[in-house]
Amino acid sequence: MKIAISGKGGVGKTLLAALLSKIFSQSGYSVIAIDADPATSLAATLGFPSPEKITPISEMKELIAERTGTRPGEIGGIYKLNPQVSDLPETYAAKYNDIRLMVMGKVKRGGSGCYCPENTLLQSLVSHLLLARNEVVIMDMEAGIEHLSRATAKAVDRLIIVVEPGRRSFETALKIKDLAGEIGIKNIAVVGNKVQSQADEDFIRRSLPGMEIIGFVPYDRRLVEADIGNRPVLDASTQITEKVRRIFEVLVASAA
């Protein structure tokens, strides 16, 4: 099963990605989590020790040079469009509690030239993870689908858009839905997060008519307190964990 998770910044998509990774792993699945959000907070949320020491793939200059045949940021250079990446998950993935994690990092763009070699390596790696791996892949993305393409869209079993009760969150969700449709992703679902009442649930349903909602996750202050106190976030709220487990069950049932 290949799951991509997107949504406006701050809605809780990283928490959902982390909890789903944990629940899939505890249920006996082999799991690779992909942090494709430039904020790179999935490792910390998963409880990896020293997450700040994990180097994103996009910053591995020697690796990029070796696989693409050029130097990162080089202008006008010739580089390989199909670099070898099949060995990277085993070599460069961090592992903790039976979950493997690959941090993609941010591809920088600007007036100093194209960072095409980095982007080519990342796209090839994402394609390999989605198309060639026989395991559960859970991708935490930024507010968009930049790491996906028409070639990889067919491999995504579910694109989950996380929303919270708020207009800007809904606007982002609708934009993501349109972008996903343009590259052929049809299995789109919504998870409502930070829900505090039935009125919040009804508000989300009214605001996103026609979109499949596969679960609601409640707001729980204990999550914030755990983060402030530097305690494990994933263990902070049994209420939230139970709701995400129900989402897990929906995903597994839909793939059966």
Quick recap:
By secondary structure, this protein is of the alpha/beta class. 41% of the residues lie in helices and 18% in strands.
Structural commentary:
This protein has 256 residues and is an alpha/beta fold. The protein contains ten helices and eight strands. An eight-stranded mixed β-sheet has the order 3-4-2-5-1-6-7-8, sandwiched between helices. Helix 1 (13-26) packs across helix 10 and helix 3 crosses helix 5. The longest helix is centred in the last third of the chain and has 18 residues, at 238-255. It is globular. The termini are close together. The model has no long low-confidence stretch (mean pLDDT 90).
Task: Name the features.
256 residues; alpha/beta; Rossmann fold; eight-stranded mixed sheet; 41% helix; globular
